[in-house]
Amino acid sequence: MDMSVPKDKFDAFVSYSHALDGKLAPVVQGELERFAKPWYRMRALRVFRDAANLSASPGLWSAIERALASSEWFVLMASPEAARSEWVNREVAWWVANRSPNRLLLAVTSGDFVWDKDVGDVDFKTSTAVPPALRGVLAEEPRWIDLRWLRDADLADASNPRLRESVTELGSAIRDMPKDLLIGEHVRRHRQAMRHARLAIGSLATLLVFLLAATVYAVIQSEEAQSQTRTATAQLLAATAIAEMEVQADRAQLLAVEGYRMQRNPRTAAALLDVLTASPHLVRQVPVGATVTAVSGSADGNTVVAGTDDGRLLRWRLDTWTLDEIRLGHDEILSVAISADGGTTLAVDGTVAVTWKATGPSSPLSFEAKGAVSIAVSPSGALAAMIVKNGNGADLAVALYDPATGSRIRATRSRKYWSDVGMPNESTVILAGGTGAWERMRTSDLSVSSYSDDTTTPAGDYAGGGSAEASYFGYIKYRQVVLQVNNNTSSGEIKGAEVPVAQPELLTIRNDGKYVAASGGGTLWIASTADDPGAPIQLTGSGRIDAMAFVGNSTKLVSAAADSLALWDISQHSRLSRASWVDVPEVANVGPPPRIAVTRDGKRVAVLGGNSDVGAVHTLDDSLVRSEPILPFYVEHNRIPLWSADGKWLWLVGAGGATRVLLGSGPDVGVWPAASDAGILAAGVSADGRRAVFVEAGGGLQVRRTSDGAVLKQTPGAPENPSLANGLSSADLTVAAAVSADARNAAVVQSDTTRRVVVTDVESLRSHELAGPPAQAVTFGEGYLLVVRENGDLEVWDQEGTARQRTVAGDAGYAVAIAVVPGTGLVVRLRSDGRAVVIDIPSGVVLGSLQLPPMTRGSTASPWHATSMVGAAGTVELLTATSGGSLVRWPMNDHVWLQIACQTAGRNLTVSEWRSVAAIDPPEDLSCGRPLD
User: Fold this and answer.
1) pLDDT digits (tens, 9 = 90+) for 633-658
2) DSSP type of residue 149
3) 756 DSSP assignment
4) Residue 321 within a domain
5) In this structure, what CATH number is given to the domain that contains residue 89?
6) DSSP code of residue 771
7) Where does 528-656 have alpha helices with state H?
8) What gap in Å lies between CA 383 and CA 377, rounded to an integer?
9) DSSP code of 469?
10) What is the tens place of the pLDDT at every residue in 297-307?
């Protein structure tokens, strides 16, 4: 990253705490630059504000140092957070060492600034907002501005006249101009700008009238204009969806859906596929209508509860996707808790507490809990513990309650100021304070069983957090997460994790300590704390996180951003994939990939191991997969599975066409004899199911009657050469030949050094070669032939191989696997990195890619060269099978894509969201799940 700054001079350098003044500082910068600005200039002042990542990089400090050296004034946004910030102190120290302290301005945003007249220096005993670097530097009381009234972040808006008045005081000093003259100059400049604006608006209005008249005339006169408008709007919706998919997944999906609805073309389809694959671990989002302030998940992984800033308590069932709510009052909910089975939910708002049962009485139980700031519930839901502030908040009490009745069982005064409470079991209460100190109590009498008063957190620029049960505490600083166990039996710090969050804001830990989640700067990451953790996982599409929690010890995380909840699952490989949990046999390093065949209705799939020494027939259902093994006796080396047209019979085709006929997975009901000595590369069955066509390695064909296996036609091929010796790998053999869906044509890549493609008419048995460079693979689509060249190009020919229609450019990064999805016009090619590239054949446009799940066992050097793919016509799916992995179903139907997008977004696009993007009126019905036109 280039950390340099422009060599031009800056009028001012703004130093501030990112944690506290991250919203205010940009507003101050903008007002300084815009106030009294001539209409023809971009800014009146040039102000430097460090918005880069605060890493420990020496390159970053060099850039800041250059900016300081180029600045005329130093503006310190003073606060206790800034006073503790290592970077703010470093910037102040540089300024007082290299520039005049008289050119330092203070804007106090929080804390206190007190000048000791007797000493002639800042009173550091009472001044909490002053960095230590200013000690003994100021010769007289500096000019400072009080911005502490901006504690409410909503007031930090450029339109706030009080804020503008305060910023004007800074601007008058920087510009060396009395405040009243500066305001007068601003008014004069504003009037001048308005005059120019009115002239411009008048000219534009005249032009707009002509343009509108021309547009209206064109729309009335030409349907083409309407089509162009729809095309432009659809493409704009699609482009906006892609731009927003990393930060606001729900809106991005809704925009992509509307773009595709408006005009179904490759560009809008590509946008829809992009947003569906952009956040693979995102399960679902749901709007809640207010900012979420607290969130928790049940240990069984089925329920999430959340509190809002307008006093509502929400219960989100993850097994039914239902969202229920009750209201405590109108105050912000401070803390929520849920029992292990999700049956008991508790919440507090500082005044009252509530017990909400999932079953039983429909009305929740409310009871007084004045001063309660944090709540926990035991796993069974039988006990609740609270931290309660007494009086002015200086004293704390720990109280134990019966959630069923709301009665207090016992309470005791706390030794320290704790902020979090947890209950890992029925007999223990754990208290934590956010600094590493902790305390364990017995629920029997609230006596202390163990504790630690040690502060383990570092100084400044970190974020701390714990687990829901308070058994673990940790902090993140400089991208490193450090964990500790809150008991005396551990050895202090335990292995943490590395998470690429440079400006951490939130940290949460799973109850078993095996995973952490950290957010900051609009990013969200999950990382393992195992000895061999693997790379951290980024969760994109949510924006800035306000609250988050693991759902028990599952792989699920719930996060809250603004008025929306999002559920993530790091075990979910993709929102588009349907894991069948079908185990795919391992293959040898030099063996062919698994061989798969699917019935025409897409409901049954046969999978043979790469060495054809093991196999099974799997019946696929939306909720259940039934697997029946094929006896090893029936499965011989390099057998090719082929289903009959009606899906009743499974033929296992071997060398020379010797075929075992199975009734499903068994029993063996017949054997067809071999008709030659050649190996069989591909097999297909005619549309009427009466004929089977086998393609031999040398290019010969066998046409057989399916009722008894009798050979109806046969043509010999060229003498068979050792394929591997001629550069044709065992993986290539699975795609080196193909039979069209109607069994009228066959194609084969010759195994000699020419690698020519030979196409044969099955009826006449006449063959011809295709012109072109050496080929690698062939397959048939619906009325066309696809040829993969060695350089990666994909050629589209007519089915007979007489005319090349187009070429889709490729490269050497593709593996050999290729599949056509019937009924969609889509073909899928596998790259060597495991991405399945989806191509629209009619247009030749690449729509996007699907990342296949990796192998989970085995030693295959390149699992993607040990992967097979096939399209299922009946279910409009792509099936992929990777050695040592699982069989995965990928829906390729646009109706299913739209359904998944709508379900994940959890809401409908609003009219205002439509108008913020499109210039035409929205549809009357903007419901996401409405039927596709």
Assistant:
1) 566 666 899 999 999 999 999 889 98
2) G
3) -
4) yes
5) 3.40.50
6) P
7) none
8) 6
9) T
10) 999 999 999 99
